[in-house]
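Collaborator request, handled under Task 6.
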Amino acid sequence: MKKKILSAILATAMMATIITGCGGSNEQPAAAPVAQEPAAEAEAPAAEEPAAEAPAAEASGSLADKKVGVCIYQFSDNFMTLFRTELENYLIAQGFSKENINIVDGANDQATQSGQIDNFIAEGVDVLIINPVNSSSAETITDKVVGAGIPLVYINREPVADEEQRWADNNWDVTYVGCDARQSGTFQGEMIVDLGLDKVDMNGNGKVDYIMVEGDPENVDAQYRTEFSVKALTDAGWEVECLSDQVGNWQQDQAQAIVANALAQYGNDVEVVFCNNDAMALGALQAIQAADRKVGEDIYLVGVDALSEALENVLAGTMTGTVFNDHFSQSHSAADAAINYLTGKGNEHYIGCDYVKVTQDKAQEVLDMVK
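Structure tokens returned to the collaborator:
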């Protein structure tokens, strides 16, 4: 049974689409658990509300001497910078000593991260929180950490369903905390659908002609955002035409080059640019502006993460929208899961949270939270 932690800024529930559909993905994503009650966009209350009920306060005194090892796939990732900063601050607020929290950069290299995990095991950390470089390495990582008798919390990059089932079958102290990427892709597509086909189909061919800029192809989030953003269009009965689908590896400069090339090749036929994250959307915006195109007038652009710069562009109308990847809820829930293991309470093997659709009318509220 999966445990669902609602995002701190969500108030109502929605029905998420989970039927597999045609998108721009280069490969069919592996099956992954879906949060039981995906929530729809909602008004954003104050950010200080915790994403989940925090462990009992009396446990704090026993946490000061506990050692926490945190592996981040890449420090240069803008979203993971927000995540790890909030994670460390929240762990300290819950009673951990700053000197006992060690957060390391995997530099987007699985071999480097594997060595860091080996070092943490040798040091005798009490709990590990891991954002894997490659989700496909989860089985090896799990076996290593569980074999050392250390509780494990995966974050952000979800292992496949079969791996999560292993945790349940063996009753291991392993869980995953994160949002369902299918929801974020669906929200991207819905923002385009909400504009209306007459407005989006600017070349009048009866189709939505789009380009897709994908993140890391090993990452299930990239796979699902790619697939489900387009699926939202086809579910609305729209015909689509993929003009270009390229991998930008979450990087702004790579996305800028990809979109610049696509615009040079397809010109005004490009009506929508989907980007798997905001860093790439910002790169796409640079290419769009260099091509003398105007978002909201002759092209549409959506991303994911709700980075401050992206939100400012949504407010200015130079991005159509983004999706808030709630690092507050996710980091707090990951820390709470670690505490539950350390205090003997245990966890479900899947702890979900929700994304939030952000268009111009909601961008200021989210920007006030993340700044």
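The cover message to the collaborator said: "The first strand starts at residue 3 and ends at 4. Confidence is low (pLDDT under 50) at residues 5-60. Please let us know whether this matches your experimental observations."
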